[in-house]
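[Meeting: bench + compute handoff]

Bench side (C.D.) handed over the final construct sequence. Compute side (W.E.) agreed to return the predicted structure before the next meeting so the bench team could plan truncations. Sequence as handed over:
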Amino acid sequence: MEDAIRSKITEALKPTSLDIFNDSHLHAHHKAMEGSTSKETHFRVYITSDAFKSKMQPARHRMVYGLLKEEMAREGGLHALQLQTRTPEEEEKKKAKEGAQAQA
């Protein structure tokens, strides 16, 4: 599942940064996961891409959900997806702010 997420996002969005965290082990005990044999159901994905320019967060998330609709629809597939989507400019501002806070 992680490979499919990485492949589809990389191909479609050409990210300058892509971090994928498999948090499935943290949710294995949840009632909704009873009987699931999949070990890849819950992910956090941080994407920095020019493809997000001039788009609000909901539109960015719809772009990613659209790319992963097959994985979400599959039995035992992607159950939860936490997204953080930024443009390269937004990422630079975040890093500059964090750097300024670290020096304060």
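W.E. noted at the follow-up: Residues 12 and 99 are 31 Å apart (CA to CA). C.D. will use this when planning the next construct.
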